[in-house]
# Entry
Amino acid sequence: MIVKADESAISRAARVLRDGGLVAFPSETVYGLGADATNGVAVARIFEAKGRPRFNPLIVHLPEARVAREFAEFNATADALAAKFWPGPLTLVLRLRTNTQTPLSELVTAGLETVALRVPSHPIAQALLREAVVPIAAPSANLSGRVSPTEAPHVFEDLGGSVDMILDAGPAEAGLESTIVSLADKPTLLRAGAISREEIEAVLGVPLASPAGSAIQSPGQLESHYAPSAALRMNATDIGADELMLGFGPEAQNAALNLSPSGDLREAAANLFSFLRALDARGPTSIAVTPIPETGLGEAINDRLRRAAAPRGKRTN
Ligand code: TXA
Ligand code: MG
# Structure
Protein backbone atom coordinates (compact mmCIF):
# COMPACT_ATOMS: atom_id res chain seq x y z
CA MET A 1 0.00 0.00 0.00
CA ILE A 2 2.83 2.40 0.91
CA VAL A 3 5.24 2.46 -2.03
CA LYS A 4 8.55 4.22 -2.46
CA ALA A 5 7.97 7.12 -4.83
CA ASP A 6 10.27 6.03 -7.66
CA GLU A 7 9.65 6.57 -11.35
CA SER A 8 7.57 3.45 -11.91
CA ALA A 9 5.45 4.07 -8.80
CA ILE A 10 4.75 7.61 -10.00
CA SER A 11 3.62 6.29 -13.40
CA ARG A 12 1.31 3.80 -11.73
CA ALA A 13 -0.04 6.49 -9.40
CA ALA A 14 -0.75 8.79 -12.36
CA ARG A 15 -2.72 6.00 -14.00
CA VAL A 16 -4.66 5.33 -10.78
CA LEU A 17 -5.60 9.02 -10.64
CA ARG A 18 -6.71 9.14 -14.28
CA ASP A 19 -8.83 6.04 -13.63
CA GLY A 20 -10.68 7.77 -10.78
CA GLY A 21 -8.66 6.34 -7.87
CA LEU A 22 -7.19 7.96 -4.75
CA VAL A 23 -3.45 8.54 -4.33
CA ALA A 24 -1.78 10.01 -1.26
CA PHE A 25 1.33 11.94 -2.26
CA PRO A 26 4.01 14.06 -0.61
CA SER A 27 4.14 17.82 -1.04
CA GLU A 28 6.45 20.42 0.48
CA THR A 29 3.77 21.18 3.10
CA VAL A 30 1.99 17.97 4.14
CA TYR A 31 0.87 14.75 2.44
CA GLY A 32 -2.19 15.25 0.24
CA LEU A 33 -5.00 12.87 -0.66
CA GLY A 34 -5.41 13.31 -4.41
CA ALA A 35 -8.16 12.59 -6.93
CA ASP A 36 -8.90 13.78 -10.48
CA ALA A 37 -10.55 17.17 -9.88
CA THR A 38 -12.67 16.81 -13.02
CA ASN A 39 -14.17 13.49 -11.89
CA GLY A 40 -17.00 14.02 -9.39
CA VAL A 41 -17.18 10.43 -8.23
CA ALA A 42 -13.42 10.35 -7.64
CA VAL A 43 -13.66 13.59 -5.63
CA ALA A 44 -16.58 12.16 -3.64
CA ARG A 45 -14.25 9.32 -2.61
CA ILE A 46 -11.94 11.90 -0.96
CA PHE A 47 -14.74 13.04 1.36
CA GLU A 48 -15.71 9.45 2.01
CA ALA A 49 -12.15 8.37 2.87
CA LYS A 50 -11.59 11.35 5.18
CA GLY A 51 -14.99 10.95 6.81
CA ARG A 52 -15.55 14.68 6.27
CA PRO A 53 -19.00 15.58 7.53
CA ARG A 54 -19.10 18.59 5.20
CA PHE A 55 -18.28 19.33 1.60
CA ASN A 56 -15.58 21.94 2.16
CA PRO A 57 -14.05 23.19 -1.07
CA LEU A 58 -10.73 21.56 -1.97
CA ILE A 59 -7.42 22.89 -3.32
CA VAL A 60 -6.70 22.02 -6.96
CA HIS A 61 -3.05 21.16 -7.60
CA LEU A 62 -1.43 21.91 -10.94
CA PRO A 63 2.08 21.48 -12.35
CA GLU A 64 2.55 25.12 -13.37
CA ALA A 65 0.89 28.53 -13.50
CA ARG A 66 0.18 28.21 -17.21
CA VAL A 67 -2.16 25.29 -16.52
CA ALA A 68 -3.71 27.05 -13.53
CA ARG A 69 -4.79 29.86 -15.85
CA GLU A 70 -7.13 27.46 -17.62
CA PHE A 71 -9.25 27.20 -14.49
CA ALA A 72 -9.33 30.69 -12.98
CA GLU A 73 -9.21 34.38 -13.85
CA PHE A 74 -5.76 35.80 -13.09
CA ASN A 75 -5.47 39.53 -12.45
CA ALA A 76 -2.18 41.45 -12.13
CA THR A 77 -2.00 40.69 -8.38
CA ALA A 78 -2.45 36.97 -9.01
CA ASP A 79 0.25 37.10 -11.68
CA ALA A 80 2.65 38.79 -9.28
CA LEU A 81 2.05 36.32 -6.43
CA ALA A 82 2.24 33.32 -8.78
CA ALA A 83 5.50 34.60 -10.29
CA LYS A 84 7.04 35.02 -6.86
CA PHE A 85 5.76 31.97 -4.96
CA TRP A 86 4.93 29.24 -7.48
CA PRO A 87 5.95 26.51 -7.42
CA GLY A 88 5.64 26.60 -3.64
CA PRO A 89 3.35 26.57 -0.61
CA LEU A 90 0.94 29.34 -1.65
CA THR A 91 -2.72 28.67 -2.51
CA LEU A 92 -4.58 31.35 -4.45
CA VAL A 93 -8.37 31.63 -4.32
CA LEU A 94 -9.50 33.15 -7.61
CA ARG A 95 -12.65 33.51 -9.66
CA LEU A 96 -13.49 30.28 -11.41
CA ARG A 97 -13.43 30.24 -15.20
CA THR A 98 -16.57 28.55 -16.38
CA ASN A 99 -15.95 27.99 -20.07
CA THR A 100 -13.09 25.54 -19.62
CA GLN A 101 -12.69 22.47 -21.78
CA THR A 102 -12.69 20.07 -18.84
CA PRO A 103 -14.69 21.65 -16.02
CA LEU A 104 -13.78 20.96 -12.41
CA SER A 105 -16.27 18.90 -10.42
CA GLU A 106 -18.58 21.17 -8.43
CA LEU A 107 -17.69 19.10 -5.37
CA VAL A 108 -14.19 20.59 -5.62
CA THR A 109 -15.47 24.16 -5.47
CA ALA A 110 -18.46 23.26 -3.25
CA GLY A 111 -20.57 25.14 -5.74
CA LEU A 112 -18.69 28.41 -5.10
CA GLU A 113 -17.75 30.80 -7.89
CA THR A 114 -14.14 30.73 -6.74
CA VAL A 115 -11.50 28.04 -6.80
CA ALA A 116 -8.37 27.43 -4.72
CA LEU A 117 -5.28 26.69 -6.85
CA ARG A 118 -1.78 25.66 -5.90
CA VAL A 119 1.39 24.70 -7.77
CA PRO A 120 3.46 22.58 -5.36
CA SER A 121 7.26 22.54 -5.56
CA HIS A 122 7.93 19.05 -4.19
CA PRO A 123 9.64 17.06 -6.98
CA ILE A 124 7.41 14.00 -6.46
CA ALA A 125 4.24 16.11 -6.49
CA GLN A 126 5.53 17.85 -9.62
CA ALA A 127 6.31 14.56 -11.39
CA LEU A 128 2.92 13.11 -10.43
CA LEU A 129 0.98 16.18 -11.64
CA ARG A 130 2.82 16.20 -14.95
CA GLU A 131 2.23 12.51 -15.59
CA ALA A 132 -1.38 12.55 -14.42
CA VAL A 133 -2.14 15.46 -16.80
CA VAL A 134 -5.51 15.98 -15.05
CA PRO A 135 -5.77 18.61 -12.27
CA ILE A 136 -5.59 16.98 -8.82
CA ALA A 137 -7.90 17.94 -5.95
CA ALA A 138 -6.16 17.22 -2.67
CA PRO A 139 -6.91 18.00 0.95
CA SER A 140 -4.45 16.91 3.61
CA ALA A 141 -4.39 13.10 3.77
CA ASN A 142 -5.72 12.69 7.31
CA LEU A 143 -9.03 11.61 8.76
CA SER A 144 -11.32 14.57 9.32
CA GLY A 145 -10.50 16.18 12.68
CA ARG A 146 -6.99 14.71 12.92
CA VAL A 147 -3.74 16.56 12.32
CA SER A 148 -2.27 16.81 8.83
CA PRO A 149 0.15 13.97 7.98
CA THR A 150 3.79 14.79 7.35
CA GLU A 151 4.91 11.19 6.72
CA ALA A 152 3.54 8.31 4.67
CA PRO A 153 2.96 6.04 7.72
CA HIS A 154 0.71 8.75 9.22
CA VAL A 155 -1.43 8.54 6.10
CA PHE A 156 -1.60 4.78 6.39
CA GLU A 157 -2.63 4.97 10.05
CA ASP A 158 -5.51 7.30 9.21
CA LEU A 159 -6.68 6.16 5.81
CA GLY A 160 -5.15 2.70 5.29
CA GLY A 161 -7.44 0.68 3.10
CA SER A 162 -9.44 3.51 1.57
CA VAL A 163 -6.50 4.85 -0.47
CA ASP A 164 -5.39 3.05 -3.62
CA MET A 165 -1.75 4.07 -3.24
CA ILE A 166 0.43 6.01 -0.80
CA LEU A 167 3.60 7.45 -2.39
CA ASP A 168 6.37 7.61 0.20
CA ALA A 169 9.10 10.23 -0.14
CA GLY A 170 10.00 10.65 3.51
CA PRO A 171 8.96 13.49 5.80
CA ALA A 172 7.31 16.58 4.28
CA GLU A 173 9.55 19.61 4.56
CA ALA A 174 7.29 22.38 5.89
CA GLY A 175 4.94 20.26 7.99
CA LEU A 176 2.61 23.22 7.80
CA GLU A 177 -0.11 23.69 5.19
CA SER A 178 0.08 26.21 2.39
CA THR A 179 -0.81 29.84 3.00
CA ILE A 180 -4.20 30.63 1.44
CA VAL A 181 -4.75 34.08 -0.06
CA SER A 182 -8.03 35.03 -1.68
CA LEU A 183 -7.90 37.51 -4.57
CA ALA A 184 -11.56 37.05 -5.47
CA ASP A 185 -12.12 40.40 -3.76
CA LYS A 186 -9.49 42.53 -2.01
CA PRO A 187 -6.42 40.44 -1.07
CA THR A 188 -7.34 38.48 2.05
CA LEU A 189 -5.36 36.01 4.15
CA LEU A 190 -7.71 33.02 4.54
CA ARG A 191 -5.19 30.72 6.21
CA ALA A 192 -1.78 31.43 7.66
CA GLY A 193 0.70 28.84 6.47
CA ALA A 194 4.14 28.03 5.19
CA ILE A 195 4.66 31.46 3.59
CA SER A 196 4.42 34.36 6.02
CA ARG A 197 2.02 37.27 5.76
CA GLU A 198 5.00 39.64 5.56
CA GLU A 199 6.48 37.86 2.54
CA ILE A 200 3.17 38.16 0.69
CA GLU A 201 2.57 41.76 1.71
CA ALA A 202 6.04 42.63 0.45
CA VAL A 203 4.92 41.60 -3.04
CA LEU A 204 1.46 43.16 -2.76
CA GLY A 205 2.67 46.47 -1.37
CA VAL A 206 -0.50 46.59 0.76
CA PRO A 207 -1.58 44.76 3.93
CA LEU A 208 -3.60 41.58 3.59
CA ALA A 209 -7.15 41.86 4.88
CA SER A 210 -8.51 39.36 7.40
CA PRO A 211 -11.65 37.45 6.60
CA ALA A 212 -14.88 38.70 8.14
CA GLY A 213 -16.06 36.85 11.26
CA SER A 214 -15.21 33.21 11.64
CA ALA A 215 -15.43 32.46 7.94
CA ILE A 216 -11.80 31.39 7.92
CA GLN A 217 -12.55 28.25 9.89
CA SER A 218 -15.08 27.02 7.45
CA PRO A 219 -15.72 28.51 4.04
CA GLY A 220 -18.73 26.19 4.00
CA GLN A 221 -20.36 28.83 6.15
CA LEU A 222 -19.70 31.75 3.83
CA GLU A 223 -22.75 33.74 2.76
CA SER A 224 -21.68 33.41 -0.84
CA HIS A 225 -21.91 29.65 -0.62
CA TYR A 226 -24.27 28.46 -3.30
CA ALA A 227 -27.82 27.86 -2.15
CA PRO A 228 -30.82 27.50 -4.44
CA SER A 229 -33.27 30.39 -4.61
CA ALA A 230 -36.08 27.86 -4.36
CA ALA A 231 -36.98 26.65 -0.89
CA LEU A 232 -35.82 23.15 -0.06
CA ARG A 233 -37.78 20.42 1.70
CA MET A 234 -36.00 17.31 2.94
CA ASN A 235 -37.20 13.73 3.55
CA ALA A 236 -40.04 14.34 1.12
CA THR A 237 -42.20 11.36 0.29
CA ASP A 238 -44.74 13.23 -1.79
CA ILE A 239 -44.65 16.29 -4.00
CA GLY A 240 -46.74 19.46 -3.99
CA ALA A 241 -47.83 21.72 -6.82
CA ASP A 242 -44.98 24.03 -7.89
CA GLU A 243 -42.45 21.63 -6.40
CA LEU A 244 -39.79 19.66 -8.20
CA MET A 245 -38.54 16.39 -6.75
CA LEU A 246 -34.86 15.61 -6.33
CA GLY A 247 -34.71 11.88 -5.82
CA PHE A 248 -32.27 9.37 -4.43
CA GLY A 249 -32.37 5.63 -5.01
CA PRO A 250 -34.59 3.24 -6.97
CA GLU A 251 -37.83 4.22 -5.22
CA ALA A 252 -37.69 7.81 -6.47
CA GLN A 253 -38.94 6.98 -9.93
CA ASN A 254 -41.00 10.11 -10.43
CA ALA A 255 -38.27 12.53 -9.45
CA ALA A 256 -37.41 15.33 -11.89
CA LEU A 257 -33.77 14.36 -11.33
CA ASN A 258 -32.33 11.44 -9.40
CA LEU A 259 -28.99 11.92 -7.59
CA SER A 260 -28.33 8.20 -7.96
CA PRO A 261 -31.00 5.82 -9.24
CA SER A 262 -28.99 2.90 -7.85
CA GLY A 263 -28.62 4.51 -4.41
CA ASP A 264 -24.85 5.08 -4.66
CA LEU A 265 -23.81 7.89 -2.29
CA ARG A 266 -20.62 8.66 -4.24
CA GLU A 267 -22.61 9.23 -7.38
CA ALA A 268 -25.13 11.30 -5.42
CA ALA A 269 -22.40 13.50 -3.96
CA ALA A 270 -20.89 14.03 -7.41
CA ASN A 271 -24.28 15.14 -8.78
CA LEU A 272 -25.49 17.18 -5.81
CA PHE A 273 -24.47 20.74 -6.71
CA SER A 274 -25.20 20.55 -10.42
CA PHE A 275 -28.61 18.92 -9.89
CA LEU A 276 -29.64 21.53 -7.30
CA ARG A 277 -28.63 24.22 -9.76
CA ALA A 278 -30.45 22.56 -12.67
CA LEU A 279 -33.71 22.19 -10.72
CA ASP A 280 -33.46 25.71 -9.33
CA ALA A 281 -33.13 27.07 -12.87
CA ARG A 282 -36.58 25.67 -13.63
CA GLY A 283 -38.03 28.10 -11.06
CA PRO A 284 -39.98 25.87 -8.66
CA THR A 285 -41.34 27.25 -5.37
CA SER A 286 -39.44 24.51 -3.64
CA ILE A 287 -37.29 21.47 -4.28
CA ALA A 288 -38.49 18.34 -2.47
CA VAL A 289 -35.65 15.94 -1.70
CA THR A 290 -36.42 12.29 -0.97
CA PRO A 291 -34.75 10.70 2.10
CA ILE A 292 -30.99 10.14 1.92
CA PRO A 293 -29.34 7.87 4.50
CA GLU A 294 -27.14 9.56 7.14
CA THR A 295 -24.37 7.00 6.64
CA GLY A 296 -21.01 7.55 4.93
CA LEU A 297 -21.14 10.41 2.42
CA GLY A 298 -24.85 10.77 3.25
CA GLU A 299 -23.87 12.84 6.29
CA ALA A 300 -22.14 15.50 4.15
CA ILE A 301 -24.90 15.41 1.54
CA ASN A 302 -27.58 15.92 4.20
CA ASP A 303 -25.52 18.65 5.88
CA ARG A 304 -25.42 20.57 2.62
CA LEU A 305 -29.15 20.06 2.07
CA ARG A 306 -30.04 21.04 5.63
CA ARG A 307 -28.18 24.32 5.26
CA ALA A 308 -29.85 24.98 1.91
CA ALA A 309 -33.20 24.20 3.56
CA ALA A 310 -32.69 26.57 6.52
CA PRO A 311 -35.17 29.46 6.62
CA ARG A 312 -33.99 32.38 4.52
CA GLY A 313 -32.36 35.12 6.55
CA LYS A 314 -31.48 32.61 9.24
CA ARG A 315 -29.33 30.57 6.97
CA THR A 316 -25.92 29.80 8.39
CA ASN A 317 -24.21 28.51 5.28
O1 TXA B 1 -0.66 22.54 2.04
C1 TXA B 1 -1.80 22.36 1.65
O2 TXA B 1 -2.51 23.29 1.24
C2 TXA B 1 -2.32 20.92 1.65
C3 TXA B 1 -1.54 20.15 0.58
C4 TXA B 1 -2.03 18.75 0.41
O3 TXA B 1 -1.58 20.85 -0.64
N1 TXA B 1 -3.73 20.87 1.40
C5 TXA B 1 -4.64 21.29 2.32
O4 TXA B 1 -5.96 21.11 1.94
O5 TXA B 1 -4.35 21.78 3.38
P1 TXA B 1 -7.21 21.18 2.96
O6 TXA B 1 -8.38 20.61 2.21
O7 TXA B 1 -6.86 20.50 4.23
O8 TXA B 1 -7.44 22.70 3.16
C6 TXA B 1 -7.96 23.46 2.09
C7 TXA B 1 -8.46 24.77 2.58
C8 TXA B 1 -9.73 24.60 3.38
O9 TXA B 1 -9.69 25.42 4.53
C9 TXA B 1 -10.76 25.08 2.39
O10 TXA B 1 -11.92 25.50 3.01
C10 TXA B 1 -10.01 26.18 1.65
O11 TXA B 1 -8.77 25.59 1.47
N2 TXA B 1 -10.60 26.50 0.34
C11 TXA B 1 -10.65 25.73 -0.75
N3 TXA B 1 -11.33 26.33 -1.75
C12 TXA B 1 -11.70 27.54 -1.29
C13 TXA B 1 -12.43 28.64 -1.82
N4 TXA B 1 -12.92 28.60 -3.07
N5 TXA B 1 -12.64 29.71 -1.05
C14 TXA B 1 -12.13 29.75 0.21
N6 TXA B 1 -11.43 28.74 0.78
C15 TXA B 1 -11.23 27.65 0.06
MG1 MG C 1 -6.65 19.67 6.30
Notes: The first strand starts at residue 2 and ends at 4.
